[in-house]
Design a protein that fits this description.
The protein has about 475 residues and is α+β, with helices and mostly antiparallel strands. Helices cover about 50% and strands about 20% of the residues. The two termini are about 55 Å apart.
Length: about 475
C-alpha cells in the first residue's frame, strides 16, 4: 500500500486549512484504495458507510432511477466538492442512491461513518465546510434531477402529441386522395348527366332537397345500428329494382337521411333514364360533401391540439406569475393525454365548480402538476376505469381533486410517494415527472397537496392560493 502523507492531504481543497494534527488524525482513521478506470466504488442499495477523500483522479456518480443508471455528477478535487464524496457527517443518507465508478486511475482514502462523531470534533470550521459541500451537492443533484424529469416529461409528452397528431394527419392524407378521386369522377358523371337533358329545374329541386338534409337538426332522427342497416337494405333493394345495384350508394343515401319515398319522387320527376344517371352523380356529390366535412374535422383536431400545446407549455406568455383559468388548463391537459384515455377507454367525469376564480401561477409549471397527476391516475386504472376531476374554491384557495377508482396506493409506501426518485412505474412508463417535483411546484405556489387512498378510490387534492404571497 502506498503511504499517504500529510503533504498529500494538504493538496485536497477541503482539507487545506486543517492543522497537521487534524490531518494526522484523518490518516490514522482512514483506509487507502487504488482503482483503475471503470472500477465500482459504491453500489446502489448498499449501506452508505464511507466518506471518500480523492487524492488523485475523478469519480463519476450515476443515480439509479427506474431501473437504469443516469449520469448525475463527477467528483474531483475542485471548489465544488473539495475532493470529498460519499456520505458525510450530518447526512441522512443510509444507502447509496446509485453507482459510483472510477474515471481513469483513482487514489483515495475512506473514513468510515463510525468515526464521524470524532471527526466532527476536529474543527468547527471544517464541519461547517463539509456541511456547505453537502448542501451544494444536494442543490446540484436537485437541479440535475429536475432537468432529467423535464426532459423525460417532454419526451413522453412529445410521443403523446405525435400519437394525437398522427391520426388526423393520416386522415387528411386519406381524405385528400379520396376527394381527388371523387372530383375526377365528377367530370365523367356530369357528362353523362348532360347527355340525359337534365334541366336546371331538376337540379334546383335536388339541390333544395340536399340543402334541407344539410339544415336538418342533428338530433331529428337517431337510428340504432340495426335500424340504420335496415334502412340501407331497404334503399339497396329499391335501387336494384330501378336497375342500380350498388351497396355504397345505398349507404351514402341512408347516412344522409334519404328515404325510398324521397328517392321515388326524384325518379318520377326525372324519368327512368335520367334517374339512373343522376343517382351516381348525386352519390358522388354527397360523398364529396361528407369528405370535406371530415377534412374540416381533422384540421380542427390539429388546430385544437396545437392550441392546447401552446396553452399547456405557456409558450405565448412570459415565464412569471400570470392569472390562469384552471379549468381550461385541465381541459388542455386532457386533450394532450387523450390517446392514453382512449387506449384504456377511461371515462372522464368533470365536476367543475361554477364561477371558478383565476389564480396567479407559473402556468407551465402548474400544468406539469395536472399532467403528472392525471397520468398517474390513468396508470393506476384498469381498462374502462373512471377518472373524476372535481374543482371547488373558498376564500383562500382553488381546490382541484384528481380521483381514480383503481386499486389504491399500498399503505406501506404511501408515506414515500413524495420522496425524490421514488416511483412504482417501470422504465419508460409515465411522464417522468415525479411526485417530488409536483410537491415542489405546488409549494412554490404557496399551495398544498393532500392524498387519501383506499381500494376503489385514490384522491390527490391540490390547493392553490387565489392570492399569491411573495416569498
Amino acid at each position: 500500500m502506498q503511504s499517504v502523507t500529510i503533504e498529500d492531504l494538504k493538496k485536497i481543497i477541503a482539507l487545506s486549512e486543517l492543522s497537521d494534527e487534524h490531518l494526522q488524525w484523518i490518516l490514522s482513521h482512514s483506509e487507502y484504495r487504488e482503482l483503475v478506470d471503470g472500477d465500482l466504488i459504491a453500489k446502489y442499495g448498499e449501506p452508505a458507510d464511507w466518506m471518500w477523500i480523492i487524492l488523485e483522479g475523478k469519480i463519476a456518480f450515476y443515480m439509479y432511477i427506474n431501473g437504469r443508471q443516469v449520469y448525475f455528477y463527477t467528483f474531483e478535487n475542485n471548489n465544488l466538492t473539495g475532493g470529498i464524496g460519499g456520505v458525510m457527517p450530518y447526512s441522512r443518507m443510509k444507502t447509496y442512491p446509485g453507482y459510483s465508478y472510477a474515471l481513469g486511475e483513482v487514489k483515495l482514502i475512506g473514513i468510515n461513518r463510525k468515526d464521524f462523531p470524532e471527526l466532527e470534533q476536529l474543527s468547527t470550521d471544517f464541519s461547517q465546510k463539509l456541511i456547505a459541500y453537502m448542501t451544494e451537492r444536494a442543490r446540484i443533484f436537485a437541479t440535475t434531477q429536475l432537468q432529467h424529469e423535464k426532459v423525460n416529461a417532454l419526451g413522453n409528452l412529445a410521443a403523446g402529441i405525435a400519437h394525437e397528431m398522427n391520426n388526423p394527419a393520416a386522415a387528411i392524407k386519406g381524405i385528400s386522395n379520396e376527394l381527388k378521386k371523387r372530383l375526377n369522377r365528377n367530370y365523367e358523371l356530369t357528362k353523362k348527366l348532360l347527355d340525359c337533358n337534365i334541366t336546371p329545374e331538376h337540379l334546383e329541386h335536388i339541390r333544395s332537397l340536399v340543402k334541407e338534409k344539410d339544415n336538418a337538426p342533428v338530433d331529428t332522427v337517431k337510428w340504432t345500428t340495426l335500424q340504420r342497416i335496415e334502412n340501407e337494405d331497404e334503399i339497396e333493394e329499391w335501387l336494384e329494382e330501378k336497375g342500380i345495384a350498388d351497396r355504397e350508394t345505398a349507404e351514402t343515401f341512408s347516412e344522409y337521411g334519404f328515404s325510398t319515398k324521397e328517392l321515388e319522387r326524384i325518379s318520377i320527376d326525372l324519368g327512368k333514364g335520367p334517374f339512373i344517371q343522376i343517382i351516381p352523380w348525386l352519390e358522388n356529390l354527397l360523398s364529396s360533401q361528407k369528405i370535406i366535412v371530415d377534412l374540416a374535422d381533422a384540421s380542427s383536431r390539429i388546430s385544437n391540439l396545437v392550441g392546447s400545446i401552446k396553452s399547456h407549455v405557456h409558450m405565448d406568455r412570459a415565464n412569471d406569475l400570470q392569472l390562469t383559468n384552471v379549468h381550461q388548463d385541465i381541459e388542455n391537459t386532457l386533450t394532450l393525454l387523450g390517446f392514453k384515455l382512449r387506449e384504456k377507454n377511461i371515462e372522464v367525469i368533470k365536476k367543475f365548480s361554477q364561477d371558478m376564480p383565476d389564480v396567479p401561477a407559473f402556468v407551465s409549471e402548474l400544468n406539469q402538476v395536472w399532467t403528472n397527476l392525471i397520468d398517474n391516475a390513468v396508470f393506476a386504472l384498469e381498462k374502462n376505469g373512471i377518472l373524476t376531476i372535481e374543482t371547488s374554491h373558498n376564500n383562500k384557495n382553488v381546490i382541484v381533486s384528481i380521483i381514480d377508482n383503481g386499486v389504491g396506493i399500498p399503505q406501506d409506501i404511501i408515506s414515500r410517494i413524495f420522496d425524490p426518485f421514488f416511483t412504482t412505474k417501470k422504465v419508460g412508463e409515465g411522464t417522468g415527472i415525479g411526485l417530488d417535483l409536483v410537491n415542489r411546484i405546488i409549494k412554490r405556489h404557496k399551495g398544498d397537496i393532500k392524498v387519501t387512498t383506499e381500494p376503489g378510490r385514490t384522491c390527490f387534492s391540490v390547493y392553490i392560493p387565489i392570492a399569491h404571497t411573495p416569498a
